[in-house]
Amino acid sequence: MSEYFDTVVRVRYAETDKMGVVYYGNYYVYFEVGRVEYMRHQGVDYKQMEMQDDCFIVVAESNCRYRRPARYDDLLRIRTRVTQIKRRTIRFGYEIFRDQSGELLATGETGHVVCDGKGRPKTLPEKFRRLFAGATIGEPSPPPMQ
After folding, report:
1. What domain count does the chain have?
2. φ/ψ of residue 60, rounded to 5
3. Which domain holds residue 23?
4. What is the pLDDT of residues 37-81, one digit of tens each?
5. CA distances from 39 to 25, 46, 85 (A)
6. Distance between CA 59 and CA 104 in Å, rounded?
7. Residues 78-105 pLDDT 10s
């Protein structure tokens, strides 16, 4: 199992303000892109998780620390990892780098409660817990290698 997974996205014009800087709320969209791709890389198809296992990971908390602005047409590397997993909760950590320079632009975290389709908390099925079993809390990763 990978400790983290990197996903690369290009900043679209619609994600920026008049000055060409990424609007702050879009970092949470990037976190979601990173989270879904991390899960897919670990063998978890989120759509199938919902349909077959009646298992949803509901965002219960989130934070983002903005360090430098991302701008229109930048390639961003979203580094995602599981930082904590418990019976009914899972926490993801994120780092967003400017892909070409490796400059750290933002860090963040989301905390999720595992729920059924009616929004009631439930235990994360063992098959998913095993896929994330190696998750540990650690220091931020070094910038991506060029």
Report:
1. 1
2. -110, -25
3. 5-131
4. 999 998 888 899 999 999 999 999 999 999 999 999 999 999 999
5. 22, 7, 13
6. 24
7. 999 999 999 999 999 999 999 999 999 9
Would 140 be classed as within a structural domain? Answer: no
- pLDDT at site 120: 97
Phi-psi region of 145 (alpha: psi -120 to 50; beta: other; left: phi over 0): beta
CATH of the domain at 121: 3.10.129.10
In a domain, 143, yes or no: no
Contact 58, 116 (CB under 8 A): no
87, part of any domain: yes
The pLDDT, as a whole number, for residue 133 is 67
> pTM, whole model, 2 decimals?
0.87
Residue 141 lies in a domain: no
